[in-house]
UniProtKB/TrEMBL annotation:
UniProt protein name: EGF-like domain-containing protein
Keywords, alphabetical: Disulfide bond, EGF-like domain, Repeat, Signal
Disulfide bonding pattern of the chain: C59-C68, C97-C106, C117-C134, C136-C145, C176-C185, C229-C238, C267-C276, C287-C304, C306-C315, C346-C355
Top-rank taxon, per record: Eukaryota
Species: Coilia grayii (Gray's grenadier anchovy)
Segments forming domain EGF-like: 32-69, 71-107, 108-146, 148-186, 202-239, 241-277, 278-316, 318-356
PROSITE patterns recorded: ASX_HYDROXYL (PS00010), EGF_1 (PS00022), EGF_2 (PS01186), EGF_3 (PS50026), EGF_CA (PS01187)
InterPro entries noted in UniProt: EGF, EGF-like_Ca-bd_dom, EGF-type_Asp/Asn_hydroxyl_site, EGF_Ca-bd_CS, Growth_fac_rcpt_cys_sf, NOTCH1_EGF-like, Notch_Cell-Fate_Det
Pfam families noted in UniProt: EGF (PF00008), EGF_CA (PF07645)
First and last residue of the signal peptide: 1-30
Length: 363
C-alpha cells in the first residue's frame, strides 16, 4: 500500500514538472513570435520597432492595425460628387461617374456627350476641366477638326515624278505626267515593246534585271531570249495571269474570281462549298441563343459557335457556371445559376456583377 502511494506521489511530481516546463516553453515561444525577429511581424511594407514595452509597427500610408494588415477606408473622407460610386483602394480611391459626368471627383459635365468634333474625329474629355478635345484624322485640323489641311502647300510635293498636287477636302490627289501612274505617281509605266527597256526602249537579254517576272526562268537562244513561266503565268515576260476561270467548275449561279494558278467561286445565297455545289445548312439557322452559324465548306453541315453561358450542338444547353470550379463571385458571394449566365448574391457592403466593388455609405 505504501509502495503504491509512493509511486503515485512520484508520478504527480513528474507530471507537475512537465506541466510547468510546457508553460515556460509556451511563454518563451510567444515572446519570440511577437518580436521584430518574427517573420512577417509587420505586413505591407510596415517597419517594426522594438521598445521596452514590446514591438510595434509603423505602417506605410494606407494601412493600419497592429500588424499593418487593415486597409484604411479612403472613401470615408472621399469627395465624390452626388450620384458617383466610390471604390476604395490602398491609400487612394476612385470615383465611378454616372453618365454625363467626368473628372476625378465626377464634378464636371462631360463635353463629349454632344460630340462637337467633325469629320469622324475622336472626342476625348479633359478630366481636369471637362473640356472636349478632338483628335483629328489625317487631312483635317482645327479645334473641332472642321478645317481642311492643304497637303499641297505644306512643303515638299507629295506627288512623285513631278506630278501635279491637287488639294481636296480632307485629302489630295496627284495628276501624273506621261509614263507614270498611282495615287502618288509612284508607278513607272513600261511603254516599250517586249524584250525592250529604258527610256530609248533598248533591246535586252537575260542579263537585264527583271527580264522574266513572277519566278520565270530566262533562256538565251540564237533568236533572242525567252522566258519559261511558272504555273499560273504566261506571256513574253511572265506578267500575264492565266485565266483559270476559263476552265473552272463553279456551279450554276456562282461567280468565278481568277487568282494566280487558282480560282475562287463566290456562291449565291443558299449555296456553299469550294465550287458552290452544296446547300448551305445555315440558311435555316439551327443555332440557338444568338450563336454564330458557320457552314463547313466540305460537307455543308452547320457548326454553331456558342456564346458564353451556352453549350451543346445547337447551343441550346445551359452551362452551370456555379459548378465549373472556383466560385466566380468574389467576397464569398453566393453564385446563382441562370439560363445562359449566372448572378452573384453579394454579402453586405459589396456590389457589382461579381461582388468586386466595395460600397461606401456616404452621409
Amino acid at each position: 500500500m505504501e509502495k503504491d502511494m509512493a509511486i503515485r506521489r512520484e508520478f504527480k511530481s513528474k507530471a507537475f514538472l512537465l506541466f510547468a516546463l510546457a508553460i515556460i516553453i509556451e511563454h518563451s515561444t510567444a515572446q519570440t513570435k511577437t518580436g521584430c525577429s518574427s517573420p512577417g511581424r509587420c505586413q505591407n511594407g510596415g517597419t517594426c520597432v522594438e521598445a521596452d514595452s514590446g514591438s510595434y509597427c509603423i505602417c506605410v500610408n494606407g494601412w493600419s492595425g497592429d500588424d499593418c494588415t487593415e486597409n484604411i477606408d479612403d472613401c470615408a473622407t472621399a469627395a465624390c460628387s452626388a450620384g458617383a460610386t466610390c471604390i476604395d483602394r490602398v491609400a487612394s480611391f476612385i470615383c465611378l461617374c454616372p453618365y454625363g459626368r467626368t473628372g476625378l471627383l465626377c464634378h464636371i459635365d462631360d463635353a463629349c456627350i454632344h460630340n462637337p468634333c467633325s469629320n469622324g474625329a475622336q472626342c476625348d474629355t479633359n478630366p481636369i476641366n471637362g473640356k472636349a478635345h478632338c483628335d483629328c484624322p489625317s487631312g483635317y485640323r482645327g479645334t473641332y477638326c472642321n478645317e481642311d489641311i492643304d497637303e499641297c502647300s505644306l512643303g515638299a510635293n507629295p506627288c512623285e515624278q513631278r506630278g501635279k498636287c491637287i488639294n481636296t477636302f480632307g485629302s489630295f490627289s496627284c495628276q501624273c505626267p506621261h509614263g507614270s501612274m498611282g495615287s502618288r505617281c509612284e508607278i513607272d509605266i513600261n511603254e516599250c515593246a517586249p524584250n525592250q527597256t529604258g527610256q530609248n526602249c533598248t533591246q535586252t537579254g537575260c542579263s537585264s534585271p527583271g527580264r522574266c517576272q513572277n519566278g520565270g526562268t530566262c533562256v538565251e537562244a540564237d533568236s533572242g531570249s525567252y522566258c519559261i513561266c511558272v504555273n499560273g503565268w504566261s506571256g513574253d515576260d511572265c506578267t500575264e495571269n492565266i485565266d483559270d476561270c476559263a476552265t473552272a467548275a463553279c456551279s450554276a449561279g456562282a461567280t468565278c474570281i481568277d487568282r494566280v494558278a487558282s480560282f475562287i467561286c463566290l456562291c449565291p445565297y443558299g449555296r456553299t462549298g469550294l465550287l458552290c455545289h452544296i446547300d448551305d445548312a445555315c440558311i435555316h439557322n439551327p443555332c440557338s441563343n444568338g450563336a454564330q452559324c458557320d457552314t463547313n465548306p466540305i460537307n455543308g453541315k452547320a457548326h454553331c459557335n456558342c456564346p458564353s453561358g451556352y453549350g451543346g450542338t445547337y447551343c441550346n444547353e445551359d452551362i452551370d457556371e456555379c459548378s465549373l470550379g472556383a466560385n466566380p463571385c468574389e467576397q464569398r458571394g453566393k453564385c446563382i445559376n441562370t439560363f445562359g449566365s449566372f448572378q452573384c448574391q453579394c454579402p453586405h457592403g459589396f456590389m457589382g456583377p461579381r461582388c468586386e466593388a466595395h460600397i461606401t455609405f456616404m452621409s
